[in-house]
Amino acid sequence: MCKHCSCYGLNARTGEGGLGMPLPRWLARINKRVFNPVEVRRGARPVLIHTGRSSGKTYRTPLDAHRLPDGYLFIPLYGPRTDWVKNVLAAQAARLCIDGHEIELRSPRLVKKKDIWPMVPTNNKSYPGISSESELLRMTSADKAQNPE
Q1: What pLDDT, in 10s, does the model give residues 28-81?
Q2: Half-sphere exposure of 37 (CA within 13 A, CB side)
Q3: Alpha-carbon Rg of the chain, whole angstroms?
Q4: Rounded CA gap, 65 and 9, in Å?
Q5: How far is 19 from 133, CA to CA, in rounded Å?
């Protein structure tokens, strides 16, 4: 793995191969401190509310949330080792705010794109640098976890 970004061995020219995304870590730091707070205030995107694994602080991270039959799928654009992914996995729960409504999410797990992407509605956009081996975060809605159909 490159120590300057989270590309995990991606081919720089084609974006293929590897396990993660080709976006550099410096961009993640800028987004986290500058653009994410603006996006949260705008309220135009889904926001994942999670608890810091060390600090216990509540964080709000704007993300694309892809609806699944039993919950949601999130794309960690900077790879599965980002703070928000580690926080959610450590807490085993998060909340998703969409259009002013909060949804309790449970059972976070990393899944390969090739295993889950067929369940994602076809109108969702694809992401550059995501290979079939990329790890995405899948979570189950709390009501589905308690009352599976």
Answers
A1: 666 766 666 667 667 667 899 999 999 999 999 988 889 999 999 998 887 888
A2: 5
A3: 15
A4: 26
A5: 6
- Give the C-alpha separation, 31 to 140, whole Å: 26
Beta carbons within 8 Å of 55's beta carbon, 6+ residues apart = none
138, 137, 133: which is closest to 19 by C-alpha?
133
141 alpha carbon, distance to own chain's centre: 15
Sign of the alpha-carbon dihedral angle for 35, 56, 49, 108: positive
Which class in CATH covers the domain with range 25-146? mainly beta
Amino acid letter, 143 = D
Sequence-ordered list of residues with C-beta below 8 angstroms from that of 41, at least 6 positions apart, any chain:
none
Model-wide pTM > 0.85: no
Question: For the segment 85-122, what is each residue's pLDDT rounded down to a tens digit?
Answer: 999 999 999 999 988 899 999 999 999 999 998 888 87
